[in-house]
């Protein structure tokens, strides 16, 4: 089974599910219109946004700020700014977690834990860093911790299938079951690498940053994971 076939199998079996809402779960303000005068969400500091001082006389609209400015505002205590950062990154954070733990519930837990940890550690973040890479690495670590705590997972917790009007439901169930069993025989890291690369479209360097491994290791893991799944699923197409 060559890589294009593997990719097709993944896209039919590992869906991109709507991520949870960390903004609500963390009880953060919803970033919509700028907050009214004197209410939470206004930054009181000497940082500048667009050349003008940010203080009690100027509300912050997350939609109008660049990410670095959102980070600076969030570090100054503006929860609306942090909520804006969450909105920007929640889908990819969920995809990272889902690639590692596979089940929706575990991925949801990892995202919540990751965002909460990032919120608490925000003051230690250096604005010159890439916020997305920093955040997704935290989420990946949370997901890896959950995966290690839950070595044995029920088959019903595995990824939902992408239903097709032309696909026999029984065939879809069998396809999911086979892929599920094959994925579960991979280690957490190799499973994360192949799903992040072949399903979510991450580049090797991005995967290396997310998982804290060299780019070459990510390439090697992908090669070995594909070879392993090829052996596990070698008779899949012949039985269709």
TrEMBL record:
Q: Which family does it belong to?
A: Belongs to the sigma-70 factor family. ECF subfamily.
* Alphabetical UniProt keywords: DNA-binding, Sigma factor, Transcription, Transcription regulation
**One GO-annotated biological process of the protein:** DNA-templated transcription initiation
Q: Which organism is it from?
A: Gemmatimonas aurantiaca
Q: Could you state a single Gene Ontology molecular function term?
A: sigma factor activity
Taxonomic lineage from the root = Bacteria, Pseudomonadati, Gemmatimonadota, Gemmatimonadia, Gemmatimonadales
What protein name is recorded for this chain? RNA polymerase sigma factor SigM
Q: Which InterPro entries match?
A: RNA_pol_sigma-70-like, RNA_pol_sigma-70_dom, RNA_pol_sigma70_r2, RNA_pol_sigma70_r4_t2, RNA_pol_sigma_r2, RNA_pol_sigma_r3/r4-like, WH-like_DNA-bd_sf
The record's region (Disordered) falls at 155-174
The record's listing under Pfam families reads: Sigma70_r2, Sigma70_r4_2
